[in-house]
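so i finally got all the pieces together for this one. its two components total, 630 residues if u count the protein bits. some of the lines might not be protein, just check the labels. i wanna see the whole assembly predicted at once instead of chain by chain like last time, that was a mess tbh
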Amino acid sequence: MISLQEDLKDIRKLSRIITTIENRQKGYKDILRKCFYHSGKSKIIGITGPPGAGKSTLTSSLIGVLREEGSSVAVLAIDPSSSFSGGAILGDRIRMLDYSLDEKVYIRSAATRGAMGGLCVAASDIITVLDAAGFDYILVETVGVGQDEIDVVKETDTVLLVLVPGLGDDIQALKAGIMEIADIFVVNKSDREGSDNLVREIEYILSLAEHGKKWNTPIIKTVASKNEGIKELSIQIKKHFDFICSNSLILQKRKERFSLKFKRLVLEGLETKIKNGPLKGEEEEKLLESFIKKEQDPYTAAEEIVESFILEELQ
Amino acid sequence: MISLQEDLKDIRKLSRIITTIENRQKGYKDILRKCFYHSGKSKIIGITGPPGAGKSTLTSSLIGVLREEGSSVAVLAIDPSSSFSGGAILGDRIRMLDYSLDEKVYIRSAATRGAMGGLCVAASDIITVLDAAGFDYILVETVGVGQDEIDVVKETDTVLLVLVPGLGDDIQALKAGIMEIADIFVVNKSDREGSDNLVREIEYILSLAEHGKKWNTPIIKTVASKNEGIKELSIQIKKHFDFICSNSLILQKRKERFSLKFKRLVLEGLETKIKNGPLKGEEEEKLLESFIKKEQDPYTAAEEIVESFILEELQ
């Protein structure tokens, strides 16, 4: 264990460990088990928002402010696992090369996994590793805007929703799902026309949703490319963290996180079992033949198998 | 059953049925069971490619050519299930309003479902319904480029990979995963500079991969906005369909489709069971508490539960 703890401090070894986790290579579970017992100390910040909102630049500026304070920072960028890996994603990352010589900064991309069940498992596990590695902050930035990424962000302590004027026409569409998980709104590129309107719109939507809520969701105007508003943002992040610590919210959040993680792990395990199980080979061939011949339908057959799983044994 | 068959012919009733399927509303499984036994006649065409390749315009033009021949066409557009529903997606759809009065054309968007396990189940099921409804062609168009959408396209009979000059710099990145599932390459916007280069690049990559393959993957140049090359494309689509019918490939493809569908259904069922099962409530609370207290880790606990599932009962 001591050696793993040491390895996690070494950026290059950390990278290799994360690759092991990501690819589900031999020994990954032992690493995760050990990491789990050393996790729980990092502040985990989710950064989400539509494409073009400047999330990467914001992340980059935020690293700067947090580093000035002496905090160590890990960034996990969640890329949609795409066969079409776009140039833009890479371009955004390049900005972060500013920190490539800083040992207290670690930047990593993770593809969301498209495999059924295995979805997001890796991202959630990488967070556990980074947490065990002792980073003060873990910034989880979504590149894409899919449900997968939002699901990952839901598991963070503090969620920043980054919006920009101009894209804001669609703020009504944002209401479903994402508005309620935002702990801090960031109006980035706020030197652009329309930023006051966007702030008012957010305020209005918040006013409809907020009664009864104890946390007063702040709206921070930033110009990330000029480092404007980033200090204020970091103050609000700390405020929010203090807030969730001062009541039982952090416990609740962690329970939810563990609950999601656990269910995903169970599903991942079952998926592997189904893939490698008796359904492969001759039995499966028979089943598929029966579908082809329309002797039975996959809906009924799947139902029967699900029924046959004995769940009473769950402890 | 007669009434369901009739309902499927009525576009408005069909829409309602698909909504029932998509939302997993009461009775959805009975509908699917019935549809399954009436499915298997449609030609299912997948249309995928990076954003900006003009997939929607191509789909729209293709509908035109297929309609001229008297074929009925259903379009299923797979949208990434996003809280940030972009205006672009809607804009693309609007072009298809040309066909809004044509009863032999049905256009539907389906969100890929982000829920673990439930992923893509709905899309695959909607295809079954459209198939049972008797459409000659089902065009499955991906809007996003996530793994989810690619997984859906994998289940079609013929996969069109749409590329455009200019975006083509990243063709190397495409090789992994997507190149091998393409049955027809479409170089769209081929009046743009660089289209010959793109064709050559594709030819080169195909030359590396194709030996031993019986199907000679064609590369079709189109300008979808001007309906150029679309007739040729439709001919190649038919050729490919004849090809897979003339050997056992279509059977193999259907088996693969059923296999994926079946496994997803099993996972979806298990997911529901896990969500509603004994893990909810007091038991789950105990488990989560034990994680919080670091008395045990979720990796080991999940493993134990997966082990406890009795798979020997699988028939």
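Residues 249-276 of chain B form the longest helix (28 residues).
Confidence is low (pLDDT under 50) at residues 82-92, 114-119, 311-315 of chain B.
anyway lmk what u think
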